[in-house]
Amino acid sequence: MAMTVGMCFAREFPGSAVTEFARRLDAGGVDELWLIEDCFFTTAPPLAAAALATTERLGVGLGILPAVARTAAVTAMEIATLASIAPGRVVAGVGHGIQSWMAQMGVATASPLTTLDEVISTVRRLLQGETVTFEGREVFLDAVRLEHVPDPVPPVLAGVSGPKSLALAARVADGVVLAGPSTVPHVRAARQAAADRGPDYRVVAFTHLSVADDPRDAYRTMAPWVEARLGSAGFRDLPFLAELVERHATDGLAGLTDLPREWWLQLGAIGTRDDAVEHLALLEAEGVTGVTFFPSDDLETARGQIDDVIAIAGAR
């Protein structure tokens, strides 16, 4: 499948801004808008409904619904409802959720892997029109069938990052959504975890965006982001990770600002717009089927970045 290009709607943004982002991206020819759901900000399904109702062709992703925040039946109902508003334009992401947040809500599970397996498996069956009876560790369904079965059936992706979770995604989901940081080695690992799956298996990568006429301005902007993610799963497979850590230990943020351009290309869409296009090409070469730019968490900055996303998507 052709690689899609999209933009995230960050959790810090008010829901009232979602139609502006959706309309501008739709008019600019961008493929997708992914709505971020994190506790305790906004929820993705109502944002998605607003985005779908005010656009004509834009794909909308749910990124990422925590498996235990809703029952499996309600998750399937919400996805199916959105798919009925805009058939063929909805992609669902379901993940573990941040366990500390799940505990705050009283829905933490003793086995996140088993729970995600049960939720994604039963949600996909419900979306396909099956009558589902299931008694698992966390999911219970007694002859449940959706009254409104979506056509076409929207894909359900696993929003995960660790090796065991990536293996689970390859077994039970229609693909994986990597919420970031989606470095080039990290997306390579995600594709390798699904080596037995065919070309329809989706790998969607959220990649951080910061572009400027002078790439050094973008590097300075993103140095704190690199610092905060040195121990993240997305950085785990970087061939230069040890040197990156050493630079930080020796020179702090200044050591991270002065990284080689080739390293920045591995880390994200960081530098000039041409650098961002080159980063997309690197991800596509690793088998990524969709790239979604994660903007600044400042609303006004992100509004300006919509033009960057439109230009980069058009330059591919």
Brief summary of the model shown:
This protein is of the alpha/beta class and about 325 residues long.
Can you characterise this structure?
- With 316 residues, the protein is an alpha/beta fold.
- It contains 12 helices and 11 strands.
- It has helices at residues 18-27, 44-53, 72-85, 99-104, 112-127, 163-172, 184-193, 215-228, 241-257, 261-267, 273-285, 299-315; strands at residues 4-9, 32-36, 59-66, 90-95, 132-135, 140-144, 156-159, 175-178, 202-211, 269-271, 290-294.
- It has an 8-stranded parallel beta barrel, surrounded by 9 helices. It has a two-stranded antiparallel ribbon with strand order 5-6.
CATH architecture: Alpha-Beta Barrel
Largest sheet: 8 strands, parallel, barrel
Tally of individual domains: 1
- Return Rg in Å: 19 Å
| Basic shape | globular
Name some characteristics of this structure:
316 residues, alpha/beta, TIM Barrel, 8-stranded parallel beta barrel, 12 helices, 46% helix
